[in-house]
Design goal:
Layout lengths: L6 E12 L2 E12 L3 E5 L6 H9 L6 E6 L2 E2 L10 E4 L11 H11 L4 H14 L15 H13 L5 E5 L7 H18 L3 E5 L2 H7 L2 E6 L2 E6 L1 H6 L4 H6 L6 E8 L2 E4 L4 E4 L19 E7 L4 E3 L8 E10 L3 E8 L2 E8 L11 E6 L5 E4 L10
Parallel strand pairs: 3-8, 3-9, 6-7, 7-8
Antiparallel strand pairs: 1-2, 1-4, 4-5, 9-10, 11-12, 11-14, 12-13, 14-20, 15-19, 16-17, 16-19, 17-18
Amino acid sequence: MSSNSDIALTLNNISKAYGDLKVLKHIDLEQRDKEFLILLGPSGCGKTTLLRIIAGLLPLDTGTVNLKGKNITQTPSYNRDIGMVFQNYALFPHMTVFQNVAFGLKMRKVAKSEIAKRVNEALKLVRLDNMGPRSIKQLSGGQQQRVALARALVLNPSLLLLDEPLSNLDAKLRAQVRVEIAQIQKRLGLTAILVTHDQTEAMTMGDRIILMQDGIIQQSATPTEIYQEPNNLFVASFIGSPQINIFNCTKTGNSLKFDEFDHSIPVDKLNGIFFEDIGNDVFPDGQYEFGVRPEDFTVGDETSDPLFTGQIFFVENLGADYYLHTKLGTKTIIVRSPQNCNDYNSSGCEIAIGFRSGKVHLFDGETHSRVRFK
């Protein structure tokens, strides 16, 4: 557990509504010093609203915002010691690169010699050396994004906020810039929060992911934890590509029946397949959702004790992997198979299917919460 001196940002009971629409619902959150936090979720989940409240760009209805031990809830945005990179860059088109990066320092009446030193250092950091005299209009989208980042970094803020900074870049450039931002954050030891709806950005950049839905935090965990131990069905389905396969099941006595196709498994055969060890636990009868990620099926020869037989109806060849679209009765699943699995790279063939040990997830059929065994 972190000591108080390790905590950079604390949000207590943050709520925000527009009329009857509750955008944020009693958000509590702590961020450690030098931690890279990712606010992730679908459009409308409240992540950008929360970021703008932290920045002081939106008023809150309830709650407090504390930065470095200081209550800044009523502090104007320009006095919060926060740097922000906007989705649309928000650069001044009539200014040069140097003038854009220097703008905040100039407003703070920093000496000219110090401005020149810090701006040049910031431009070097984002790989825009010697581009200070250029007009913003002469820059590519990726270069403009670097200018926006340098403008925030030059202020040496206590907290750096990034609002979907990569969404306007093409896929190749987005992959490159996300690595650069993550490296800069680590090198400088920045406390930073990034908002995104892109799970790849979240998984590859953040120390911790805050996954939100309908104004509520669904899970706060490291990328590995949130992938391997999702709190509920929403988290399991949102994280992972291709999406996790979900089977609706009914447990009765010693049998678990798959509702979408005619197949049952004895409960004692389930020992060892769940992420948590069942041990001697007997989970109660009722409705469940059985989650298996595409890479956690076994197929063909690697399945010593097959549970199902499926029929491939479509194959996606991605070079390093095959995605086998497979029918189990009327149920469709996606099985991720390695490149060398040549026996199953064509449609129409039947495959034996099992589960990898310790990889299956079980969710309550009514609450959709993860079933946790002792």
